[in-house]
Amino acid sequence: LSRRTALALAASVAATGAQAQSPVVNPLRLSGRLQQGGHAVGRINGRGAVFVDGAFVGPTSPRGVFVVGFDRDEPATRLVRVESDRGVLQQVVTVAPSTFVEQRVDGLPPSTVTPTDPRDLVKIAQDTAKKQAAFKSREDADWFQGGFLWPLEKFRVSSQWGNRRILNGEPRTPHYGIDLAAPKGASIKAPAPGRVVLADPDMHFEGGLVLLDHGQGLISMYLHMDSIDVRAGEIAWRGTKLGEVGMKGRATGPHLCWRLKWRDRNCDPSLWVAA
Ligand SMILES: [Zn+2]
């Protein structure tokens, strides 16, 4: 089933669902980490169309699995609704609050905190365009369903996900990654199957950067990589080596900044790892 066919199918399901006055709404069972930065995973029988607070977000996988991600500052409730030719299921999700700490990072290269060099600004714009194109990926799969492994065998968490940040003395956007400190050259492995949608060895802020779509636009990111072993377009299966830890881009030491997005939401990838 091509992505285009899937989207057309979901759009038609969504259109008929919107027109039908469905008298029966059944509860939808969701699992996952229902908290800020977390996610919900659900399943229906067969293909359906997923809505969050009434807005169509996309189709389920062919076997009816879907994911909804919650941002760092997600509101306390979300209405998740799935429509299919078998009916409508919905659930109000209570998104538990998470707490975040403040973190100061000094000694970063100034060009990676407040870039002013015109060549840097051109490069940053090019990088942004590449990332925006990659983030449009919507792999018609549910590879996230088995959860994630840690992408490194040995590491120390050097910065928690969601920290409020002060970089070289300047207040900045929150840290949408979890930093895993490890020696330069340590192997980074795919935590779950994913389509490689970006593999670039030299981004201005991120250094070596790989993006994996685990299905439906749930995209994990691997920053500051020293070297990259995968190419855009291929599938990295769980445990496939993506490349090696480095400190390229905005970094003061070797580490993997591990990030996760679901569409426009910033999520905590570590919440996908079994406790
Ligand atoms: Zn980071």
Task: List the main descriptive attributes of the protein structure presented here.
40% strand; single chain; 275 residues; binds zinc ion; 22 strands; five-stranded mixed β-sheet; eight-stranded antiparallel β-sheet; mainly beta; 2 helices
Please, could you describe this protein's structure?
- With 275 residues, this protein is mainly beta.
- It has 2 helices and 22 strands.
- The chain has helices spanning 3-19, 118-134; strands spanning 25-27, 30-33, 39-43, 49-52, 55-59, 65-69, 77-84, 87-94, 102-105, 156-159, 164-167, 170-172, 177-181, 187-189, 194-203, 207-213, 218-225, 227-228, 235-236, 241-244, 255-262, 265-267.
- The strands form 5 sheets. Strands 10, 13, 15, 16, 17, 19, 21 and 22 form an 8-stranded antiparallel β-sheet that branches. Strands 1-8-7-4-5 form a 5-stranded mixed β-sheet. A 3-stranded antiparallel β-sheet has the order 2-3-6, with no helix packed on it.
- A hairpin with a 2-residue loop joins strand 11 and strand 12.
- The mean pLDDT is 91.
- The site of zinc ion has 5 residues, from strand 13.
